[in-house]
Amino acid sequence: MTQQAPRAEAWHARAASEVLAVLNTDGAGLSASEAELRLQRYGPNLLPVAQVRPAWLRFLDQFNNLLVLVLLAAGVLTLLLGHVLDAAVIIGVTIVNALIGFVQEGRAEAALAAIGKMLTPTARVLRGGQQLAVDAARLVPGDIVLLAEGDKVPADLRLFEVKALRVEEAALTGEAEPVEKSVAPVDSEAVPGDRLCMAFSGTLVVHGQGRGVVVATGAASEIGQISAMLAAVERIDTPLLTRMASFSRQLTLAIGVLAVVVFALGVWGAGYAWSEMFMVAVGIAVAAIPEGLPAIVTITLAIGVQRMAKRNAIVRRLPAVETLGSVSVICTDKTGTLTRNEMTVLRVATGEQVFELDGTGYGPEGGIHVGGRRIEPRDYAVLGELALAGLLCNDAQVRQGVDGWQLQGDPTEGALCTLALKLGLEHAEEAARAPRHDVIPFAAEHRYMATLHEAAIYLKGAPEAVLARCDRQRGDSGDIPLDQAYWLAQETALASEGLRVLALAQRVPDAEQAELSLDALGGHFVLLGLVGIIDPPREEVRASLARCHGAGIRVKMITGDHAITARAIASQLGIGGDAGRTLTGSQIEAMSDADLRAVVHEVDVFARASPAHKLRLVEALQAGGAVVAMTGDGVNDAPALKRASVGVAMGQKGTEVAREAAGMVLTDDNFASIGHAVEEGRTVYENIRKAILYILPTNGGEVGGIVLAMLLGWQMPITPVQILWVNMFTEITLSISLAFLPAAAACMQRPPRDPAESLISGFLLWRLLLVSLLMAGASLLVFQLELTTGASIAQARTAAVNMIVVGEAAYLLNCGDLEHCVLGSLLRNRPAWLAIAVVMSLQLAFTYLPTLQLLFGTAALPVASWGYILLLGLTLLLLVEGEKGLRMWLERRT
Ligand code: ATP
After folding, report:
1. Pick from 165, 206, 380, 452: CA 20 to 30 A from residue 621's CA?
2. How far does residue 460's CA lie from ligand 1's centre (Å)?
3. Minimal-distance CA residue to ligand 1 atom 14
4. Where would I find the Cation-transporting P-type ATPase N-terminal domain in this sequence (predicted)?
């Protein structure tokens, strides 16, 4: 039995120490066994699951559809006219169709829900004095949680330590402006927005750091209390789906009008009996309305989302699937996305020497050389000082684990830990000798980090940020004035090798200095030297970039690194060409929006860029009509991610805030996964187009047959219930297979689709007309052939229906590729053949099973009839292929 955490407490009104005491915990956190016990007692930290619509309601919802209602009305009228069997079939088929829709919709919803669960949040806690990352669902009251910029608060916390902690509480209070947190108790009557010493589950840390004790989890948390509000299920909805739905509605209306006109013409113009014409009109409505279309679009989207998830791209917002297919520019970070984010110091430049280091990865193996000669690091005091600065001004740790050397924290800092280890400096020992009193954490905006210790302030960061605060440099025999030109030359030399360059400096703190602040860090630092860090490109990225270029997608690198480093890495990967221009953040700042717009398309490398520049770049690109995918990981990337056509967040190194803002999350942080997602996005769109181009002409064929027969004064070649059979069973089964078609090689060989391009093109209308005529012609031909050879009307109709279905099967194979010939790859279209096998078994039952013969008015066919039906099917297949060939030929000629 789980019980709720003690909720009635006004934690915000009590002193932090008191709260810790009540919850029986201290600053070191709970023990593992106590945490386990409390988990049993209070239950997991999960919000109550959203109330899904009950099954019966979802089933009834299937009838909330104009066509189904028309059909039911027709069924009732048919009954009134005395056609009991027909009425039973119409109503029966309607119900079976609703069942199929119900099951498919359920599967699509379940698939999407499963993907939503793939992004489970973790929380950093202290347990037994150790810092651990645990699944947020396993938090319990009494746990000590560490918060940092970019985190989503995992449970309700009473804060007891804050450093410039600002939290955005819009999820809870609707207030978008971040709130500055503190630790002092507040009035017990304060509303959640005023409880400054609390951090609430589901809110976002946009700045600073903090620690708090968990006071409420799951349903007991503030957000849990109001989660009934959030319980509404997110409907599957995208711009394309909306357009499809409205298109379907318009079409239904048009077809309704057509049916009425045909009815009137038949009764008053051609003198048919009105009861007969009524059935014809119903037949036309049933035949023409593309009832399967919305379902197919939904299923295609759901399958696309699943396929992307398998390829490491988790879609958070469904419209992103469609947009991905039309992306024309990808703006990507460098570090970790294009490169491996495995950093190793390769060079160290001090005032007097340049050291070269061996080794890769985080293991402290490999020698140190100067000018090709191996040296003993102990003989170089400045090198040792620089390594110590790099070790203490650092939040990462490298440790030897079972699988070799493991990094915890930022890779750039990890590289500096390894450098220190190579010089025999141990983190625990040095940190104990010179404890840290304060820190300015690294941020992409100011590009440095500083720490305060008893005897020194250490500063490390981008060379221009550090050098600006230095007036001297350390030499082998004491400090001398800073030689700007020397350092600039060293920096350029390191960066041209594609190395990431950091400068390290130190100074003596002011007397009794207890704090560091951004505004008052001051100058007068002594520069110790520069380090050059290698971060090798990811192997698979080169090929992926080439594919993107082949697909007409421009890839732009936006990095915080130095322009020369960025340029070197870009040319290693093949971004931007050798002559390409590079823009830096400060150049972007100096430009007006109009100037930026004028050059942004031509520049592929942006260096020393910060998140604000990313936002301006997206806007400039979009103003030029580009559809932009943009990657990001930090809190400040959120505006650019939201603004981009598709925001792409990093699953591993990204913050929770960036993930919330993004439309898609990469589980492996790898650029290649964006390429795959674009490919799947294009495939989804193509498959939807195929479904439309498949369904509409087959419907057209049936209507064409009926209208032609009427105009010729013939008997109806197919009855309304038979049309129902064809549309509701065979056509839907066949068309679903289109959603499963894999990506075609050609889809990444053409330029991106214009997002404004209409789905219903002239091409579609032409194809619609052609296939409609071919199908109508073939079925009428078969119908007449049967009648002239003395077959019964039932047998002739059975043959006509089978002709339509075989024609549909043949055209399904054509639709494997809309523009190109499929004859060479016919057998490879496995989904189509599977669907054809199912449908042909259904047709055999339809033709030969006595019960179905009775229900649908069919009769057994002789083998000879099958012979020419199949032959005509093959002819249809070849004619459509011929049309494709002709089009291609004509296109080449123009
Ligand atoms: P991107 O991922 O967008 O390609 P980036 O993440 O590599 O870029 P930043 O992390 O913003 O870029 O780094 C910019 C510069 O700041 C680096 O070139 C380096 O000089 C410096 N820098 C990076 N990390 C740290 C750190 N932890 N401490 C101090 N300085 C750093």
Report:
1. 206
2. 11
3. 560
4. 10-83
Neighbour tally for 151: CB within 10 Å: 25
CA gap 702, 700 in Å, rounded: 5
In the reported structure, the alpha carbon of residue 312 is separated from the centroid of ligand 1 by a whole-number distance in angstroms of 25
Quick one: which atom of ligand 1 is closest to the CA of 395?
Answer: 27
In short, whether 560's Cβ falls inside 6 Å of ligand 1 is: yes
Query: Is pLDDT above 60 for 235?
Result: no
Give backbone dihedrals phi and psi of 57, rounded to 5 degrees, phi first.
-70, -40
Ligand 1 atom, smallest distance to 461 CA: 30
Active site residues: 333
DSSP, collapsed to helix, strand or coil, labels residue 739 as: helix
pTM above 0.85, yes or no: no
Pocket of ligand 1 contains residue 341 by CB under 6 Å: no
Q: Determine if ligand 1 sits within 6 Å of the CB of residue 458.
A: no
Q: Is the CB of 502 under 6 A from ligand 1?
A: yes
> 576 — phi, psi (to 5°)?
80, -5
Q: Are 793 and 719 in contact (CB under 8 A)?
A: no
Structure tokens at 166: 């600002």
Mean pLDDT of 1-12: 60
Q: Domains plus CATH for the chain?
A: 11-49+115-232 (2.70.150.10), 55-108 (no CATH), 270-288+685-893 (1.20.1110.10), 314-339+539-670 (3.40.50.1000), 344-534 (3.40.1110.10)
CB 472 within 8 A of CB 526: yes
The pLDDT of 482-491, averaged and rounded, is 96
Residue 214 to residue 20: CA distance in whole angstroms: 9
Task: Measure the CA–CA gap between 72 and 61, rounded to whole angstroms.
Answer: 14
* Percentage of residues in the chain having pLDDT higher than 70: 96
The alpha carbon of 635 and the centre of ligand 1 are apart by a number of angstroms equal to: 15
Tokens 């697909």 belong to 551
